[in-house]
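Example 4.3 (complexes with small molecules)
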Amino acid sequence: MKAPLPFALRRLPALLVAALPLSIVHANAVSIAPPAPVAETTVVLAGHLIAEPGEPTLGAHTLVIRDGRVARLQPGLEPNIEPGARVIDLSDAHVLPGLIDVHMHLAIDSDVDPVTFASPARMALATAAYARRLLRAGITTVRDVGDNSGVTYAVRDAIDRGDLQGPRILAAGRIVSRSGGHGAKRAGPGEIDYAPAACDGSESCRRAVRENIEDGADWIKLTVSGSGREAGGQPQAAPDMFEDEVESAVAAARQAGRPVAAHAHSTAAINLALRSGARTIEHGTYFDDASVALFKKHRAYLVPTAFVADHVASKLSMFAGGRDGRGPEDLRRWTEAAKAGPGRAWRAGVPLALGTDGGPSFEPSATAREIALYAESGVPLPQALRAATVGNADALGLGAELGRLRTGYRADLIAVAGDPQRDASYLQGMRMVMKHGHIACLRDCAEPAAESSAPAPSK
Ligand SMILES: [Zn+2]
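Answer. The structure with zinc ion bound is encoded below.
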């Protein structure tokens, strides 16, 4: 079933959208498209319920799902609560809100074959296939923080229309940075060509942001420092952009109701982004006491991306060196600082969101792994799970819709075999995934990557 004109609705001015009954408009004016209506009522019998991760796990509950939302939620198992409804028996499982990952790159795949890498159409199909695997791994919402080819917009809209199965996607599109900055370099040979969102002086920064919004960006991604693998990402490195550039980009985004996700590793870059009003700091490896005060003052969220640091740590010799690159020992110190980030932030009281920096090169279990890495760095496991649900929903400005299971909330829920607030490994295997009342999978959620039928292996 297809929703009426979701693409058009998404593009309408916020005031007009607010007048339409199916639409949802949030405080920050980022809207999530109205998905296809669900006619039938579903009753979910949950053996245990984690209504709000971070709060104690509850006993048996019955959830009534109607029109894609939680219509009723009550203690005990009541299979006959709604005569004629479809009943999903998960009395042997733990039911909790769907996972959210706020730092992914759905259309950046370092492992694909050269033809796919150079073709927007092929890349969109690869992205769509990965989106389906993500949903079946329990990821019901993703924020994509950088796709210069723009194919994520198409996948996002196709999922919203009901043409494809996948998480709901909030997309940032082209990465905004200074010319040649991290993520804003010109396309290399064999890459999908694009015009970088160059931000060189306040006027061009406004233009880059406004062009992205015209293209369909829900968020703006700004890179204020180099990558963690480069000299520009060192603790003491100066920001990669001037103050007026960061400020004007954030102001142009704010004017259009789009929040900003700022990539920053060095202390000065983190603090410049926070002072300028970025909603989330991506990576944020070298935050200091001044950063902590700014996070709290501006109610900004940290997305430490321990997963990607862990990945780099496992392949130090492969990632070391290169132009402006760090040596293996220096790189190892960065990965250790980055992996310690979640625990350090937790102890300092910094609001925590959660994202992996993952994409099609990685298994969809990366988000569950990030939760485990939070716990390894000292975040209590229930609070790590909270960051991936409540924290992420709040960081996205969607805390009244997503991240918890309450009456009126979107019916994004997953079921696992045991209590993930005690053991994160339960998140590696889904018993059921539901997004907006639609069941994506029941019992047989595991879906490995498709086997290539090509005669010669290309990977
Ligand atoms: Zn990233």
